[in-house]
Automatic annotation (TrEMBL):
Gene3D superfamilies recorded: Ribonuclease Inhibitor
Protein name from the UniProt record: U2A'/phosphoprotein 32 family A C-terminal domain-containing protein
Species of provenance: Laodelphax striatellus
């Protein structure tokens, strides 16, 4: 019997909390082919769970998360989350994994993530269609621009994907994406930021030779950070 089946068949929520959730107050519902969480489970566990693993399911709607206000970590890898999903505000969430979903456009998706999770410290978006992979020198700068763009939204972000956020990345993110000024001057238009991100991507994908040289210089500089 799977964890999910045990929960559904349980008559004693207190007992199940002790047997299903570990000492970190983690609830694991991975690989259950779920598209939502039944209300009965939400009522029994939402106030108790600190770490929720619902990876490898078929979630595309996450509105049920509004009741999990004590969550600190949310693992949503390998689901059907796309750029149109709006998460409820969860100010206490520190870790969010959204690897291998269906996010094809980063803006305003990343901005909406920041509104929902203002204190996020660890974020992972690897394997989404809109996230450039750092495979070689021809994709390195696209990936770097993605990192800078994403970091610029989260003041407390410490880890993005598989790497820590460096002080150099933080400085460059502030320099390249001065959103407060742009938003004041241009009325907070989403098209402005989206266009800016696309422009930077285009600039850094021109000229494979010069791009390779810049990539090597950046890697050398990063080694001393």
């Amino acid at each position: 019997m799977t964890t999910y089946e045990k929960l559904l068949n349980s008559d004693d929520s207190v007992l199940e909390r002790e047997t299903i959730c570990d000492e970190d107050q983690r609830l694991n519902l991975a690989y259950e082919n779920l598209s939502t969480i039944p209300k009965s489970l939400v009522l029994n566990f939402a106030s108790f769970v600190r770490i929720l693993d619902i990876s490898c399911n078929v979630f595309s709607d996450v509105s049920f998360l509004k009741d999990f206000q004590n969550l600190r970590s949310l693992i949503l890898d390998h689901n059907k989350i796309d750029e149109n999903v709006i998460f409820p505000v969860m100010s206490g969430l520190n870790l969010l994994w959204l690897n291998h979903n269906q996010v094809a456009v980063l803006f305003p998706f990343v901005k909406n993530l920041q509104k929902s999770f203002p204190d996020l410290k660890q974020l992972s978006l690897m394997g989404n269609p809109g996230v450039p992979a750092d495979i070689d020198d021809t994709t390195f700068y696209q990936h770097l621009q993605y990192r800078l763009f994403t970091v610029s939204f989260f003041a407390n972000l410490e880890h993005l994907d598989s790497r820590e956020v460096t002080s150099y990345e933080r400085e460059e993110a502030v320099r390249l994406y001065r959103r407060p000024l742009l938003e004041r001057l241009l009325g907070n238009s989403s098209n402005v930021l989206s266009s800016a991100y696309m422009t930077f991507n285009q600039l850094f994908t021109r000229g494979s030779n010069s791009q390779s040289q810049i990539a090597n210089q950046h890697r050398q500089r990063s080694a001393f950070i």
